[in-house]
Amino acid sequence: MMPSCFALPDGVGREVLLAELRRLAWGAADILRAYARGEQPPFGFAPAMSVDHGGEGPVSAADLAVNRWLLDGLALAFPEAGWTLLSEETAAEVLVPGQPLAAEWLWILDPLDGTKDFLQGTGEYAVHLALVRGRRPVLGVVLLPEPEELWFGLLNADSDAQGGAWRENRAGDRFPPALSTRREELVLVASRNHRDDRLEQLLAELKPACSLAIGSVGGKVATILRGEADLYISLSGRSAPKDWDMAAPEAVLRAAGGGFDHADGRPLAYNTGDVRQAGCLIASHGPRHAEICRRAAAAMAVIDPGFPV
After folding, report:
1. Which residues pair with 46 in a beta bridge?
2. Taking residues 82-89, what's their average pLDDT?
3. Confidence of residue 191 (pLDDT cuts 50, 70, 90)
4. What are the backbone angles phi and psi of residue 273, rounded to the nearest 5°?
5. How many Cβ atoms sit within 10 Å of the Cβ of residue 198?
6. Residue of 232, 239, 235, 249 lying closest to 195 (CA atoms)
7. Is 193 helix (H, G, I), strand (E, B) or coil?
């Protein structure tokens, strides 16, 4: 059910927007699945995948094709909408360090979260699309192309009140989140590629019962939404996740009743002039969220004194 206080820019209807997001999301899935299989991608995109290893990670033709498909699609579908569009692929061109974008409404896009997993063929990649008002998300879309899952989350930006969250398949069938009710023996979902000694020490303090290794932040959060896992921790080091990694998964998880915060209890903030989401970020299924955050903050004060959680 839609939250009654869910707001959009003037002239943008909720059902029209959701219908367009469905169309664009499944089109993005078709593009990515074609590239992943070495097939001709739809919509006229080039068939060969190239990889650029410059910057912080690999950028493929698949990233760029989905980026163009989604940004052009939103611009064409809503030419008069009072929002700004930002993606991982365009950030270097439009962002000035220390200066937020002058936008009340901002779309934040990651056209391919989990690029390394995509290139390695694990299938654990996602597409993130979030609508942010001010500094907080009001709508999140997480697409998992391989299992064909499309997650939506709607929030009231003024209060972060739980709104509506659900999963759809290609037929448009809706399924509610199934967050677990476990209070003990929690299951951690973690990254294969971003672990260090500090995280291992933190996990030794928090003592999850077991862990799953999943690529993509969106994929990790989906395991919490399905009830397969209960906890995800992002601990920045030499690099940090960015706005486009976190905004859409956070929106969906919060809308489903879970939690997603800094370990010191601060909410995540977007379009602040610094796209890095640095610190110790805790995402959980909810029942012990505040306690887990307190324990993580206390542990980090010993593990890495002065680290801004």
Report:
1. none
2. 93
3. confident
4. 100, -10
5. 17
6. 235
7. coil
**Tell me: the pLDDT tens digits for 240-276?**
999 999 999 999 999 999 999 999 999 999 999 999 9
pLDDT of residue 50: 61
Give me the chain's average pLDDT, please: 92
CA distances from 56 to 187, 194, 226, 253, 305 (A): 30, 13, 31, 27, 27
By the 10 Å C-beta count (0-12 exposed, 13-18 middle, 19+ buried), 58 is classed as: middle
Q: Tell me whether strands 210-213 and 187-190 are parallel, antiparallel or unpaired.
A: parallel
pLDDT value at residue 156 = 77
CA distance 25 to 45: 16
Residue carrying structure tokens 């610190």: 279
Q: How many whole angstroms separate alpha carbon 210 and alpha carbon 190?
A: 10
Give the residue-averaged pLDDT of 47-66: 70
Please classify residue 173 by burial: count the beta carbons closer than 10 Å to its beta carbon, then call 0-12 exposed, 13-18 middle and 19+ buried.
exposed
Q: Where are the beta strands (DSSP E) in the chain?
A: 51-52, 59-60, 84-87, 105-113, 126-133, 136-144, 149-156, 161-168, 174-175, 187-190, 210-213, 231-235, 259-262, 280-284
